[in-house]
Write a structure and sequence with these properties.
By secondary structure, the protein is mainly beta. The chain has strands spanning 12-15, 22-29, 34-37, 40-43, 52-58.
Length: 71
């Protein structure tokens, strides 16, 4: 969700979904600690408003070498 209401001390759980061809590079909160991996994340012990920011990166293409094999 774009936003959630969480009681003081509560936990917010959320999904971060990158566009096709991208992956989740990092997820961080400004006043909370975000944990998780892949696309599933949470922030526990919420004590104040917390803005969460996700950063995405392009999935690199497979490298093909002169011998025709991937590294």
């Amino acid at each position: 969700p774009a936003s959630q209401t969480v009681t003081s001390g509560g936990t917010a759980s959320f999904t971060v979904t990158p566009a096709t061809g991208y992956l989740v590079a990092s997820v961080a909160g400004d006043t909370c600690t975000v944990t998780g991996s892949g696309t599933s994340y949470s922030a526990a012990n919420i004590q104040a408003n917390c803005a969460v920011t996700a950063t995405f990166a392009i999935i690199p293409p497979d490298a093909i070498f002169a011998d025709g094999f991937e590294n």
